[in-house]
Structure formats: structure tokens, C-alpha cells
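# step 3/5: fold
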Amino acid sequence: MVRLTLDLIAKSRNHFKKKRGLSLPEYLKTLTHLHFSSKNIDDIGDLSMCRNLHVLYLYDNQITNICNLGFASNLTHLYMQNNDITHIDNLCTLQNLSKLYLGGNRIAVVEGLEKLSELKELHLENQRLAPGEKLHLDPMTLRSLSESLCVLNINNNNIDEFRDLKVLQELKHFSAAYNKLHNIEELEDVFIHWPQLLQMDLSGNPVRKKPKYRDRLITVCKSLKVLDGREINESTREFLVNWKACKEAKKKKNNKHGMTRPRILLPLSEDFNMGQGPHPGNICVHGNVQRWKPQPSLRSRIIVPTDLT
């Protein structure tokens, strides 16, 4: 297994060429990008001399814990997808972090991002979870990202509901493909809180089979340009919005007329004597058994508007 250290950086052919006669400490101070993807790295050592680091590439390794990054206050991009990370830890000092890539790990709960006030992109797709387990996004973390997060990718994480996401009012790109979302009313309730949403992908979810799925989301998401990889024609949106408005207006009109003339039920005259006779069955009169003849049913009714009574 491999530990990422200053010595490993110094021995790297890629970085050795860039030193150009500088001493190692001098070179490390000028370092802004560090590329160590696909190097079988399982641990991060002391990199505190790389204080000017802006971008760190550590994807496709075997890292289990996020650690020793407290020094990197200038870091803006962190690529750690396709590792073995189970918890999001030790990122609270990265207050300039703008893009965080953690897809393809083993994260079950998204938390620990409360201090990342500049985070604009969060990528969490394809977590390798236990059977039946789904990705959970901590409500406190979501609230802390509500004014900054613009891009969220939670593809393929067994998610079946996401009401808590409505606080992310700055979202412009949202991807939740190949999950288990099925409630279109819940989706509408969330999306109405995302006025800046431009692109959305819900491919592979059961909700896409609901009647008028695409039409309903287009009318709710006023600024949406692309849904499930297909562009939205503005004339189509205008037609759907007008159609929905007309439908709602007609419904209100019908309800209003229904309330102005309430209806009551009156019995027919032939039913007025009901309840006077014997109970159903055979009766005996002077020793003779006679069969009782039922009276007309109370089921017959006429409907009379109240203004005619």
C-alpha cells in the first residue's frame, strides 16, 4: 500500500521535472495542483508544506479516511471519487472549497459539510452501499449549503424520497437518475422551491412512468431548459402553462356554481307511509299464515333545488 507524503511527491517523475533547480521546500510552496490518481494510495500523510495547493487529484485510489488536509485553506477542488471512504470527515477547515467529488465511495450519510460556505458542486453518485441501504443527506448539512450549492449529483443511490432537499434554493443542475423516486407530488413540492433550476435528470426512476410526468414538471420548473437529456421548447412550456391555468380556472368556476345551489333529498309520496306495517316475514292472522307484502322502497328519491322549495 502507498502513503502520500512529501517524499513521494519529490520522487514523482511528473513533479521532478517541474522543480527546475528549486529546493524541495521552495518547490512545495509554489505547488498549486497535485496529481496522484490511480497510485494505490490508501493514506494521506503530512502535506502541510503545500500551503498554496488549490487542486488535489486523488481519485481511483484506496483511501479509507479523509485526513491531514487541515493545512489546505486555499484548496478549491478536491477529487476523491472511487476510493473506499465511508465517512465525510476533516473538511471543516477547507472554507474555500468550491467543488467536492466523492462519487463511487461507501458513504451512507452526507454530513460534516456545515463549514463549507463556498461549496458550489457536490458529487455523490454511485455509492457502494450494503443491500437495501440508501444514501441519506443530513438536514443540517443541507441547510448550511442552501445559499451556495448550485450542482448536486446523487445518481444511483437507492433514494426514494428527498423532501429535505427543498432548502437548496440556488440549485441550477440536479441529477438523481437511477434511484427509486416514485411520488410526483413530492417532486413538484420540492421543485417549486428551486426557481433557478436549469438542468435536471431523473432517468431510470419509477416516477417517469406517471401520467403527464414531463408536462407536470415543465409547468412547475419555470426556468428548466433540459429534462432527462431533452431540451424544453419554450413554446411547449407556454402552451402547458396556459393549459394548466385554464384547467384550474374552470375547476374553480365549477366549484363556485356547485356551492350556490345546494341540493336536498325529498321522498316520493308513495314512501310516506313506510314504517307503519309489520316486519318482513310470515305473519299469522286468525290461524291462517299470510305472507307480508313489502311496502315500496325508500330508495326512490327526487332531487329538488333549494330555491324551488
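# step 4/5: annotate
The two ends are 92 Å apart (CA to CA).
# step 5/5: archive (pending)
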